[in-house]
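Residues determine shape. Take a concrete instance:
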Amino acid sequence: MGEPARRGRAAASMPSIRIDRLSADPMYDQLRRQILATIADEGLSPGDLLPGELRMCEQYGVSRTVVRQALGQLEHDGIITRVKGKGTFVAPQKTAETLASGLAGLHEEVAARGGTVRSEVLRLEREPAGDRVAAALGCDVGTPIVVLERLRFVDDERWSLSTTWMPERIGALAFDAELEEGSLYAHLRAHGVRAARGVRSVEATVTDAREGQLLGIGPGKPVLLLRSTVLDDADQPIEHFEALHRGDRTRFEFRLSADDAHGPAFRTR
């Protein structure tokens, strides 16, 4: 999922501990916990190099299978990343987002936690609505709409690739918006367009060649696809968007309440 941020720092030292072969806890899990403790105690950061497999085998007197099981679990949990021919590194930690369960945009979501967002506008133009977008926006196929495609960066890290389709009357406002550093939602609100309700879904998919290149992760890599249709107070569509979020950067959190009579809907296709 992209290369670690740093490669120059020497591998972190691993404190010598004794793996208890008589413990009910598997040896790989004891080693896994030790690696976690080392990352925390030494204040290691994303991109910092960890000792190699052979070094851990020698230091702890365990087999390579045990080391690989420990590292495999840590990689699955998103704690480390392994790069063939380079080594094992502390992974960038995923950032929790509530975009899937609220009407905030990425700019508002990140600003609320003190981060920064910038966008590279790849496309902003008028086009005729296709079947899928026309259905989402409640218009006839071929109706003129505005499409906005952006590569989004959070704290200067490539974060998501989003495409937004808007009815022409709303999308026309985007041509005057400051979209590189500013918020589209804030610009629309300033012109009296306010989101009231909507439907969002999240599913797993993989990148194609173009998506992988833009997101900096390559083709065939797992990403989270966020889809959304947003309406105003008069139940008129404001936008329909689809955004690919890097799976190594993002996790979505859903805030649930017992008072929510509907709850989340789970569908298969």
